[in-house]
Design brief:
The chain is α/β, with parallel strands linked by helices. It has 2 domains: about 5-225 and about 300-310, Spore Coat Polysaccharide Biosynthesis Protein SpsA, Chain A (Alpha-Beta Complex); about 230-295. It is built from 9 helices and 8 strands. The chain has helices at about 15-30, 50, 70-80, 100-110, 125-140, 175-180, 205-225, 230-255, 265-295; strands spanning about 5-10, 35-40, 60-65, 85, 115, 155, 185-190, 305-310. It has an 8-stranded mixed beta sheet with strand order 7-5-6-4-1-2-3-8, with helices on both faces. Strand 2 (about 35-40), helix 2 and strand 3 (about 60-65) form a beta-alpha-beta unit.
Length: about 300
Amino acid sequence: MQELSIVVPVYNEGLNVKALHQEIVDVCRAADYRYEIIFVDDGSTDNTLDVLKTLAPVKVVVMRKNFGQTAAMDAGIRRAKYDYIVTMDGDLQNDPADIPGMFRYLVENDLDVVAGWREQRKDRMGKRFVSRGANLLRKILLKDGIHDSGCSLKLYKKACFDHVNLYGEMHRFIPALLEIKGYRVGEVKVKHRPRVAGQTKYDWKRTIKGFVDIIAVWFWNKYAVRPLHLLGGGGLLTILCGLVVSVYTCFLFIIGQDLSNTVFPLLSIFLITTGIQLFIFGLLADIILKVYFERTNDVAYSIREYFESKR
């Protein structure tokens, strides 16, 4: 009998968790899996936790506040007891019915990881556009061969996480990180369903962090570190401002304006130089942070409570 741990981070998904839990139970029972379902409540402010307490079988990890999807996923993975771990979103857009097919593909091809590929996305146009841009940048920098790193529906051998620590928004790039370490990674096409209840948690902040993390994984691949979000993102923004000022300065020069008494040339150089320094400081800060977490076995989140409900 195959054994699975299904890890589902949730934040304000009170309208979806009950239906998702039932779907997971139905799929696991039909496939005759020995299984556990681990929901991680990432500081929800709605009735998500109340609904989770009514479900069975279930294990629930309750975070003290909203630490983000990566931290919640890491907390759930650390609680998993079986040799295979499935991760998925809690908004019902991932279909649990895809799990058996992913499992067969992993076993038949002797893989360590199988990533879901949402070929037919059911998101709004703006979100699909940003995702395609991120995927293009990821393919250029990481060359991991994955079409859809943003799909949370993935299947892992538990051993994959023996030496992987997750920070920031790194859950999207776990296959790339594992491939760097020599694990065998594959992907299969999965269904993607439109959101029917609740609100999307994706915004411009997560988009920026996602782009910064792509550069982070690339840098980690080369030098075994990743940049700090705050300084790295601030550095990129400062460089962008410097480039804008530089373009404006060139325009003034072309039209013949005297630049000797203007601040624009010095300002553009200052902004670009400062931006580069900030980004480098971010890389150095992340080296220190990574060493700290690995030497102290600390984590970047805290759990308020844990409970389990059986059949």
